[in-house]
Amino acid sequence: MRPAVHATPAARAAVAFTLAFAAAACGGGSSGGGGADGIVSSSWGDPQNPLEPANTNEVQGGKVLDMVFRGLKRYDPKTGEAQNMLAEKIDTTDSTTFTITVKDGWTFSNGEPVTAQSFVDAWNYGAHLENNQRNAYFFGYIEGYDQVHPASGDATAQTMRGLEVTGPRTFTVTLSQKFSTWPETLGYAAFAPLPKAFFTDHDGWLAKPVGNGPYVVDSYAKGSQMSLRRWDGYPGDDKARNGGIDLKVYTDNNTAYTDLTAGNLDLVDDVPASQLKNVQADLGDRYINTPAGIIQTLAFPYYDPAWNKPGLEKVRQGLSMAINREQITETIFMKTRTPAKDWTSPVLGPDGGYDDALCGSYCTYDPVRAKQLIADGGGIPGGRLTISYNADNGSHKEWVDAVCHSINNALGNDRACAGSPVGTFADYRGKITQAKLSGPFRAGWQMDYPLIQNFLQPLYYTNASSNDGKWTNEEFDRLVDAANAETDPAKAVGTFKQAEAVVRDQMAAIPLWYQNGSAGYSDRISDVSLNQFSVPVYNEIKVAG
Which of 18, 46, 302, 407 could form a disulfide with 417 if both were Cys (CB 3.0 to 4.6 A apart)? Predict the structure, then answer.
């Protein structure tokens, strides 16, 4: 997705979102009473963008969308399997044209029925160039996307011709090529339906988003708290078992952890590395450490010519081999991370595309070979490596310093690498999306859906929505297109692995480690779990009576 030239609507939306929500917000955050009406307080960070489903591609905003919206599919919290939610059925005979039937009886929290039109309107909005939606790329396989979101110039259509409403609860989707697993992507938040109010009173909707999930947004004070409350009229079978969630903003997760142990917070869903040595004594069996579909990497700014020259792949390969992953994950993360051996996640399993041999020697600590490769590639651009990261997460400084220490040792130069902190997560994401970083930067990927395609295409395909470093490779793109066209799932996975081998050979990004979901909670709540995306299953949490 190229940068949109019509930025004014998005900028106006962001202002409306912040000001109107802040005006509506109530101060403070009470824990509320117990039982089914009790309120759960949980740590959180401000989202980067307004909570439009097609404009949210980061974790903090995604947590809210997962509570406020339900789509055609939903990923099982335990297995990650894509299961029908609002989809009564999705039929196809050719993996190109799909007929979708929406279940009857679903409404938005304002009483408006959820219809086929609710989906078609939302998808057309999300795809259109002028709306400047970060996730527009997810609609790229629908016929007519290139007219509403051309690679250059202005849009020549308002809607995609591949979307057609055929009845109150039915619509067809025609893709521009075969994509056999496309229905499995439909649990991603970008594909959520939107009510008419989103379009008729957009500023009002941004001030208080209306969805069709088990919670409604009650108030939001940026930098302080978002309060969500149970929607008693929710028709799904995954109703909230508590009265609501207060998401409290923390700029340091060490502070959040301290509040948890002091009894001032119910849930921390990212236990800081500095507290891992204490967590068992502090929380006992109220500490969760479970595999998740998350990988941490170092991304590179390919928009900077210094990092995009021929031969620089050797430098990146050498830097990867200069990182002692085993030592860092053992001493800093205390087994809540596992050294990465490919660019996906072990939760996919071998049949899903995970391959613990794919990265091979490039992910194995070898300081001698690392130094030689970096020299062979012409050395680190500018002579010094700076690794950018957001400073509001207490864990990042420790591991970035450890990575730099490892690289410095390998190169015999204690000034070869240093961390470069950036204020808050929102500030950090802003610098990334505006291409303002001049060196490698911390990147993490939390899967949107459990397919190998999701670990590769959004991050490395040319102009993809989360290709923050702007890497591009024709062979990789060709293989991804071929994999998506495969109707045999096993053959598709094999072709995706060929594409991943291109990522490896060019070291498009350095894989660091797979991240477990790590959380701690108070004795005031129970039935706490993390899904395979490492997000708390908020609707299942119970509050003590």
Answer: 407
Average pLDDT, integer, range 236-263: 96
- DSSP-derived letter for residue 45 is -
Which backbone phi and psi does 409 adopt, to 5 degrees? -65, -45
* Pairs from 76-81 (Cβ < 8 Å, separation ≥ 24): 77/529, 77/531, 77/532, 77/537, 77/540, 78/529, 78/531, 78/532, 79/532, 80/293, 80/347, 80/449, 80/450, 80/531, 80/532, 80/533, 81/450
Q: Which of 30-44, 130-144, 434-448 shows the lowest mean pLDDT across its residues? A: 30-44
Tokens of 226: 């978002």
Structure letter (DSSP) for residue 395: H
Rounded to the nearest 10 degrees, the angle between the axes of helix 367-376 and helix 394-411 is 80
**Is the pLDDT at 479 greater than 60, yes or no?**
yes
Distance, in Å, from the CA atom of 224 to the CA atom of 18, rounded to the nearest integer, reads 12
Residue 193: closest CA among 272, 248, 268, 114: 114
CB atoms within 10 A of CB 155: 17
Phi/psi of residue 4, nearest 5 degrees = -70, 145
Contact by Cβ (8 Å): 292, 347: yes
Secondary element (H or E) of residue 100: strand 97-102
Mean pLDDT computed over 10-17: 36
C-alpha neighbours within 13 Å on the C-beta side of residue 212: 30
**Letter for the amino acid at 363?**
C
Residue with tokens 């991240």: 515
pTM for the whole thing?
A: 0.77
Can you tell me which residue has the tokens 């929607």? 231
Residue 164, phi then psi, degrees to nearest 5: -145, 120
Q: What are phi and psi of 497, to 5 degrees?
A: -65, -30
**pLDDT digits 0-9 by tens, 36-79:** 899 999 999 999 889 999 999 888 999 999 999 999 999 999 88
- 280-313 pLDDT per residue, tens: 999 999 999 988 999 999 999 999 999 999 999 9
Q: What is the dihedral of CA 267, 269, 270, 275, to 10 degrees?
A: 30
Please calculate the CA angle 182-185-190 and round it to the nearest 5 degrees.
Answer: 125
pLDDT at 164: 98
User: Which residues have a Cβ under 8 Å from the Cβ of 410 and sit 6 or more positions away?
Assistant: 321, 322, 367, 370, 371
* pLDDT computed for residue 446 by the predictor: 84
Matching residue, tokens 């902190």: 421
How many angstroms separate the CA atoms of 306 and 440, rounded? 12
Q: Fill in the amino acid letter for 462.
A: T
Number of other residues whose CB lies within 10 A of the CB of residue 4: 18
pLDDT-wise least confident of 95-99, 280-284, 293-297, 443-447: 443-447
- Using a 10 angstrom Cβ sphere, with 0-12 exposed, 13-18 middle and 19 or more buried, the burial of residue 105 is exposed
| Sequence-ordered strand ranges (E) for 302-395 | 337-339, 385-390
